[in-house]
Inverse folding.
């Protein structure tokens, strides 16, 4: 390594991207290209950084496997910053194995942390947790330790384990202070602030109140029957019933929960579930079918019974399940467990997102301030790219998002959503955790 390359590398470690560029900006050899790419990434010029890192990787010969692996890791980090999630994780895993075999443990851990952060963006929390558990953080640079603890804190927040999140953030802050990296300190402070902001709204028996993440965690642990409109499902204690792929059943469950301890008129249920204001006999027949399906699914948690004008939901005490229900249209008999009377053991609570609308999860992803491509958004949300494009066009017309670039270079941005956290709206592969 010549003196200019060494000086540029030292400048990059110190965060002086411009100083590094002054030393290697006119050079085209692979080490200089790699350092220029890292400097451009530090300056926020991600497309140019990616191009330079690719050229550097191609420029290193077959005998320079370690240098090529380092370029792959650097390019993967740039791709993550660009929210380009399409790359194969196997390439990054192979680079990590090469770095580990060549005793470059710091860059090998960096590669694994990039993979973990990608999994978190995609909502694959179980895989991210498994990868973090296998990481050995002993003897690492403080900056890498801070990144690892920040990832652990984000995983704990997304899994609603607030005590673990606070402990991980404290460790991340300590490591970031030792590393003296202002960007890391700012990111840790922002993650800590999410714990103090409202994350959802609790609606029960006609009353609404905002909840922080620790209060949501306490609500789930309370044993109440929760109709979770953030992650589309029903939950009571350890029992979870995901309904994200059954929107009609979830709409019916939410309507019944919002009316608890009362009932809901059949026409109102039809309007909520089927989105029509002119119900006919076909809608009423379909309502009976869907109520039967919901009744069967919710049997471990609640009874759904017919009343004189519609239906009502009654939560069951823990350890009991619904086995019988009145005939369609028949009110509860005198002396029976009335459908309109709440039980002492459980309340019915609707957990609503901090923002309303069908595109709340899309806005939650864009709220991180990064520029997302439609393909990355579709991958994170598990939706088709065309569906995401239509949603973005609607949001752009309302002034809630904006686009930059054109064609394949087009990216989407949204201003930060101030006053609350969107953690519960982010995609999560684990059901309701």
């Amino acid at each position: 390594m010549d003196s200019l390359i060494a000086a540029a590398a030292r400048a990059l470690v110190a965060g002086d991207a411009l100083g590094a560029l002054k030393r290697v900006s006119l050079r085209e050899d692979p080490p200089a290209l790699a350092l220029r790419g890292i400097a451009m990434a530090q300056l926020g010029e991600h497309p140019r950084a990616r191009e330079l890192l690719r050229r550097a990787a191609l420029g290193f010969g077959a005998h320079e496997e370690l240098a090529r692996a380092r370029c792959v890791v650097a390019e993967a980090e740039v791709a993550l910053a660009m929210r380009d999630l399409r790359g194969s994780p196997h390439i990054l895993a192979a680079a990590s194995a090469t770095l580990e075999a060549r005793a470059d443990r710091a860059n090998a851990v960096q590669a694994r942390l990039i993979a973990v952060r990608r999994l978190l963006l995609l909502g694959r929390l179980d895989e991210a947790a498994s990868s973090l558990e296998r990481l050995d953080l002993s003897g690492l640079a403080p900056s890498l330790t801070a990144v690892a603890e920040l990832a652990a804190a984000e995983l704990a927040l997304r899994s609603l384990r607030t005590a673990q999140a606070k402990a991980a953030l404290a460790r991340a802050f300590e490591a970031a202070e030792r590393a003296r990296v202002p960007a890391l300190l700012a990111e840790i402070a922002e993650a800590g602030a999410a714990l103090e902001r409202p994350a959802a709204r609790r609606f029960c028996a006609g009353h609404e109140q905002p909840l922080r993440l620790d209060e949501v965690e306490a609500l789930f642990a309370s044993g109440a029957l929760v109709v979770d409109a953030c992650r589309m499902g029903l939950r009571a204690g350890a029992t979870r019933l995901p309904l994200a792929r059954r929107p009609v059943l979830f709409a019916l469950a939410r309507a019944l929960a919002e009316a608890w301890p009362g009932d809901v008129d059949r026409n109102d249920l039809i309007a909520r579930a089927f989105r029509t204001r002119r119900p006919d006999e076909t809608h009423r027949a379909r309502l009976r079918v869907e109520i039967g399906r919901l009744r069967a699914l919710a049997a471990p948690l609640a009874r759904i019974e017919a009343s004189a004008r519609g239906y009502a939901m009654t939560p069951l005490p823990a350890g009991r399940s619904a086995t019988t229900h009145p005939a369609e249209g028949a009110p509860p008999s005198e002396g029976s467990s009335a459908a309109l009377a709440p039980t002492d053991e459980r309340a019915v609570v609707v957990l609503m997102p901090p923002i309303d609308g069908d595109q709340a999860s899309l806005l939650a992803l864009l709220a991180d301030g990064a520029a997302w491509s439609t393909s990355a958004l579709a991958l994170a949300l598990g939706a088709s790219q065309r569906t995401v494009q239509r949603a973005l066009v609607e949001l752009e017309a309302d002034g809630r998002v904006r686009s930059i670039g054109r064609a394949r270079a087009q990216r989407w941005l949204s201003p930060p959503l101030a006053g609350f956290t969107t953690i519960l709206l982010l995609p999560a592969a684990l059901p309701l955790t």
